[in-house]
Amino acid sequence: MRIKLSICFVLFCVIGTHAQNRKLNIGDTLPNFSYQGQFSKAYNLKELKGSFVLVNFWATWNQESRAMQFDYIDIYARYKDRKFKKGRKFYILSVSIDDGIEVYTTAIKKDNLPWKTHLCDFQGWNSPIVKLCAVETIPSNYLLDPNGIIIAKNIKRDALEDILKVR
């Protein structure tokens, strides 16, 4: 599994080198990236276009980022199947920057978060996704509108709720 994940991430390493030297801001488009799904199927971020997507960066060793994921559970339950005025659903994509498969796998099982879009390439801060998305600290996240445009950064629970309830 680790080899499959690494191969997927290598594909966009070259594409993402331009993003490494700049920060992503509200109004920018989050660069597309591939990730290995729960059932060993490869996905692209662009496949979620048409939906609101929270791309959340976290790690097992960072308690603040881990706790933040629990803050999103009730919001996810309320909005995951909602039909928005200009969007079809709400997804959370959790990207771990862990570098150990055992610790990550244990945390995913223990936390039992309701969304199933969790990914980790086990490269830590050297992950191509982390570099592509210009992530420098965790917790860190981007809220994307149905067009893939960043409409919020480092959003907390209440602010996320406020944005989604008026869409």
Give an overview of the whole structure.
The protein is of the alpha/beta class. It contains six helices and seven strands. It has a five-stranded mixed β-sheet, with helices on one face. The model is unreliable at 1-21 (pLDDT under 50).
Highest CATH level, the class: Alpha Beta
- The helix-and-strand class reads alpha/beta
- For this structure, the CATH topology is Glutaredoxin
Gyration radius over CA: 15 Å
Overall pLDDT? 86
The CATH architecture name reads: 3-Layer(aba) Sandwich
In N-to-C order, the SSE pattern is HEEEHHEHEHEEH
Give the CA-CA distance, first to last residue: 38 Å
Low-pLDDT residue spans:
1-21
Q: Count the helices. How many?
A: 6
* Domain unit count: 1
Overall spatial form: globular
Question: Strand order, biggest sheet?
Answer: 5-4-3-6-7
Strands, count = 7
Helicity, in percent? 25-40%
Q: What share of residues are in beta strands?
A: 15-25%
What is the makeup of the main sheet? 5 strands, mixed
State the fourth-level CATH superfamily.
Answer: Glutaredoxin
